[in-house]
Amino acid sequence: MKLRRRMTLLAVTIAATPLALASCTAEWKPGDRAAEGRAAPPELTVTPVDRAKDVPISAEVGTAVKGGRITDVRITDDKGKQIQAEPREDGSAWVPSAPLQPKRTYTAEVTATGDSGATTTRRTTFTTMPKSTKPAITSTLYFADKRTYGTAMPVTVAFDPPIPEEARADVQRRLFVKTDPPQPGAWSWVSDGSQVYYRAPDFWRPGTTISVRAAIEGLPIGKDKVGDEDRKATSKIGRQVALEVDNATKQMSVFRDGKLIRKIPVSLGKPSTPTSSGKMVIMEKHEYATFDTRGEPNGGYVVDVEDAQRLTWGGEFIHAAPWSEGDQGNTNVSHGCTNVSSSAADWLMGVTQVGDLVTFKGTEVELTEGNGWTAWNVSWDEFVKGSALPVPAGLRPAPSQAPHPGAVAGGSPAPVPSVQGG
Questions:
Q1: Which CATH fold would you assign to the domain 12-128?
Q2: Which residue ranges does the record annotate as region Disordered (predicted)?
Q3: What is the distance in angstroms between the CA of the first residue and the CA of the last residue of the chain?
């Protein structure tokens, strides 16, 4: 059964023609130029409906106009304070810049102007619901404020518990991304609903500023849960860096701005604990880390490592492994991680960024969906199929070819609390 939004209250369409004109219709005669030139004001519909109660704090002011355009929206609370809001791109609603407060009364005054200059103004007053007692779905925004990320950085929001399929469209409508300079993009859900990714068809352009808002606080999700809180961040995209690891040669190729700058010998996962093949994204960087695999399959050890870069939630890292330097370039001996020399690991830490793409090929197993930020591990055509909302027409076609990891630029479980690897 399709989920209905609680905030989608009965809309009231206001008649375009003032009531005083209703009796004039019968007296109009052909040739009456004053009547012919009289312009009807636009028809305007506003939601929530006037005097609505128990409106979610995630409410938006819906606006629909016929015969004109919205020219002014003013939202105030019951103390007269103006509420900042921004219009949706399609003009269907104005979204408050922060969640509304529970058990408060708000007034929205909306004006629409027709092509002739005639205006219609409507006012609606509504009261928000008390603070919800329903369990909250925990959200995590993997896009921090005031950082610099690699050109493959997907905006990732994770949910615990996962979002059921019938509620994903409502959640996705409350996820906002702005880029400067503008670059189109789309959201795509991991099949189990635990993560949703936003990316462009190609890599982000270096220097792009990305602003994100996951505005789900108080949002009804399914029948018995609500969103936990609003999360915002604005960061920039840095230089173009990509890594490519080939199991056949046991070599890592490092690209910067599309040019090969270094090759590094590696030792990957041995046959019993193989490294995954696929497109990964650097998720974390640690100068020092402790891998504790006690209780894990094929684990049972604790080891301190330096210069570790996380690639998957399952514990695949690139890290310094001085104990395997004799095997690097010829034999796989790790527990799934990518072993490099201490000097190479230190050098990589100075070159890479969180958000850089790392591509592995030729290993015994394929990367599992959602094991890390796997937004790039599918074609663009497959990626947009994961959207819970229609994708704009201009974004539907696939790029002519998948971007090469070294090309210049033009989601599963919540993160484990302890660092794992091998």
A1: Immunoglobulin-like (2.60.40)
A2: 78-99, 395-422
A3: 46
Query: What residues are annotated to the active site?
Result: 319, 337
Q: Are 120 and 42 in contact (CB under 8 A)?
A: yes
CATH class as words, domain 136-237 = mainly beta
241-376: which CATH number, 2.40.440.10, 3.30.200.20, 2.40.50.140, 3.40.1260.10? Answer: 2.40.440.10
Answer whether 403's CB lies under 8 Å from 380's CB: no
The answer to whether 289 and 419 are in contact (CB under 8 A) is yes
Please give the backbone phi and psi of residue 384, each rounded to the nearest 5 degrees, phi first. Answer: -70, -20
Token pair of 350, please? 């100075």
Q: In terms of Cα–Cα distance, which of 227, 261, 226 is closest to 241? A: 261
Tell me the per-residue pLDDT of 269-328, one tens digit each, with 9 for 90 and over: 999 999 999 999 999 999 999 888 777 776 677 889 999 999 999 999 999 999 999 999
Each residue's pLDDT tens digit, 389-406: 999 888 875 544 445 444
Residue appearing with tokens 């509420």: 83
Please determine whether the domains at 12-128 and 241-376 fall in the same fold group of CATH: no
Residue 402 CA to residue 399 CA, distance in Å, equals: 7
Whole-model pTM? 0.84
